Protein: Xaa-Pro aminopeptidase
Amino acid sequence: MTSDKQVKASHRSTPTSGEFRAFIASGWASRSAAPVPRAEVADYAARRRAVLSRRFPGERLVIPAGGLKVRSNDTDYPFRPHTAFAYLSGLGAHSEPDSVLVMDPKPGGGHEAVLFFRPLAPRDSEEFFADARFGEFWVGPRPTVQDVESQLGISARHIDSFPDVLAKDAGATQVRVVRPADGQVAHLVDQTRAQAEVSASVAQQHEADEELARYLSGMRIVKDEWEIGEMRRAIAATHQGFEAIIPGLPEAVRKGRGERWVEGLFGLYARHEGNGVGYESICASGDHANTIHWTRNTGQVREGDLILVDAGVEVDSLYTADITRTLPVTGRFTEVQRKIYEAVLEAQEAGMAAVKPGNKFSDIHAAANRVIAQRLHDWGLLPDGVTLEQTLDPEHGAWHRRWMVHGTSHHLGMDVHDCQLLLRQEYMDGELRPGMILTVEPGLYFKADDLLAPEEFRGIGVRIEDNVLVTEDGHENLSSAMPRTVDDVEAWIDRVQSGAGA
Ligand SMILES: [Mn+2]
Structure:
């Protein structure tokens, strides 16, 4: 309910005469009366809300979508709803800014879900033709209250009635809000509590809010079958994006600033196949691959380089893939590139082998990390006299982490770093369960100015990242269709560049 305020230009004028207003409101064909079909996700979203309802009985839960953020003057950044809102409503990329989902406790137990939003304005309203931010003439029509109700199977109301619903018996009913989703809704909830003279301290109230946000973050850790289907679609689209990059590599070399060219090729497919990229694409050629999150993408792509591309398509439901491939620009790995690449691949295989129910999340990193440490030890890169077990000792060692400073895995879903609010015992020390989706992405990074790396290694960075589903008896690599071994990657580039397709 609280998009940023825009700066309006005073030098624009809109016709305001009575004649004009009557004229522009008239002469339009009537709107379709056909009900919007129920969305496939509606039943899944209902189940998710039922889980939430059981966890917070008798409480009013406020889950805002968030509002528009100003980019400059009267233009906004593209809108993305808060993930908790998208998850519980079932609305993805087409959520309306300033919406709020309220789980309102019912006297007999359970909750009624009510979606507050700004519905389509009538044609005789000023908004229809004069509101450049929300008006139908400017940004297209929005759904009506009836549209949303039949699409999602929940109650919907105009956002203007939200403050009154919030204030209703606020003294007697505990209210929690997902604070980071919308600062102004959080502020309104604070005011309502203050007026109702709630006995809990402000610190206690905010702690209760945080508990709700953490629960919502964590309840997405096991994906339902619909979510797994969406992840498969995101991964297939990402695969297509990579297929589009490969034939573009020679042009990226020729044009200069080739990393941007590669970013653009992927972005084209991300927008066409899905909602967009799930995070800023990392297109890092040569030494740039040694910057873990190189998203400036301002560099050249040169023959002889490896180019590390870490990118993911987010589909309209907002599920995103997160995949990295490190590709030889000319189609062939050099001997030293191959040596480093195969060490990373071996680490990734070890990490993947640890993905099975009953193992802990941190076992994945432990397995991959051991291979990385072993290789660096074999190559003589660890300080003199340091043994493998010493460097693997987390309290005293970890010298090998100089060449892989990041972790091996994270949960993946609607947020690229999914379930981020979970505490260590629930995330790192948590047991793997069927339905979890996570990345396995070790790497090795030898910066051009790393005097402790062998000279021939300097300027080479490799990461390999796949998206893995935990199954009843192990795992399924959801991105296994994308080649990974040295031979398969070389054959892939040959095949795609020769125009033979996938
Ligand atoms: Mn990742």
